[in-house]
Amino acid sequence: MQYNINIVVAVDVIKALSEKKLDNSIYLLDDSIWGSEGKGTGRLITRCVPGQRIKWMSYPVDLQTPLSISRVDFIPVYGYVPGGYLPQTGTGIQAVNPDYFEWTGVVPDYLIPGTPYYYRLQVEMGEGKNSTMHISTAAIMVKP
Q1: Based on the structure, what is the number of domains in the chain?
Q2: Which of 17, 71, 141, 142 has the fewest other C-beta atoms within 10 Å?
């Protein structure tokens, strides 16, 4: 029986906005039963199985500033390209955005077990020049 995996994206919004970076202000947790790594950090590696639905949900630590997930893109296995970021098209993982507070995707059956598939998680906090930030340090991994 397949069950959904939920990934909570908690952000200390005040810290992120004051430091103008997300690295030490984002905390990812999941409920995978297969022993994910890096829980409570921005380096979460969620273990999953093919066909499983994964749902990302945003929660601000500062309740006065709104937080939303504006994009979830999987990074190509070969990483970044000169001149900027290239969204993933090769894994077939499509994260869809129903309302900006939750994103959902399905793990395809052709991912290589034991290989981390990193994604770029972009969030928006409040308004202004530095309100959109991202990390590219979290991943999913099909369990061997």
Answers
A1: 1
A2: 71
Q: Give the strands of the sheet with 5-11, arranged side by side.
A: 26-30, 5-11, 53-60, 102-106
Token pair 């994009």 is at which residue? 71
Beta strand pairing status for 116-125 and 67-74? antiparallel
**pLDDT tens for each residue of 120-136:** 999 999 888 889 999 99
Confidence (pTM): 0.84
pLDDT, tens only, 68-98: 998 888 877 655 443 344 444 444 455 555 5
Say which CATH number the domain at 40 has: 2.60.40.420
DSSP state of 112: P
Q: Which domain holds residue 114?
A: 5-142
Average pLDDT, rounded, for the chain: 83
Burial class of residue 102 in the structure, from the number of CB atoms within 10 Å of its CB (0-12 exposed, 13-18 middle, 19+ buried): middle
From the CB of residue 5, how many other CB atoms can be counted at a distance below 10 Å? Answer: 22
Q: Are 144 and 113 in contact (CB under 8 A)?
A: yes
Closest CA to 100 of 125, 75, 71: 71
